[in-house]
Write a structure and sequence with these properties.
The chain is mainly alpha-helical. The chain is built from 7 helices and 2 strands.
Length: about 230
Amino acid sequence: MTVSNVIKYLLFTFNFLFFVGGIIILSFSIHIKCNKADYQMTDELLPALNLLIFIGAMTLIFGFLGCCGAFRENRCLLILFFLGLLAMFLMLLAVGVLGAVSRTEAAQELAREHMEQLLPLSEQPKEVQEEFQKLEMSGFCCGLSEGYLDWGNPTVVPDSCNCTDTSRNCMVLDEREIYSTPCMTYIMTWLDRVSDSLMGIAFGFGILMILGMVFSLVLICQIRNGKNCIF
């Protein structure tokens, strides 16, 4: 059979990079999920993140199949690789849609309503209060949407609200200087950043998948016909 070595090794190289990319996307997704508090992950973004984890795992498998199929010129493995890429491409489109939806005003309003169920913060379990205080220190903010009032009582406002960076917006409360910016602003900024990351990854891998499908179809065609059917 006559198979173009250029296409063969291009597909093999692509699949190796695809395999490495699968490791990266899987590691990145798992890292975000294991550190949801740091990335301020909301329930609206979790479906897209879980789907991205699944896609990363499948990328490893199909990257390996593609390498084997290209190297051994195995038509069955290449067809399986093509179908797998097509399925993952459709899933990536879903990730992009979920990421875009999470940025709409309606989704952000749902996130606000979900988080405001924590009010007043002083009545939440100790673990929840400690996590929120870490958020206040990293975000240079205080409270959720109404500032220090979200703690329920000015006397219980924690030290995490203390204004340690004078370049930020601060105010005076009972002879203390605290941050006046609510943390909801910081949370929504993080929501946009994570959404951008998800859509960026989906777009980049989508382009790679289209190239992989084209190369695999060309190689399948050459193996089937025993000659170059396109080039």
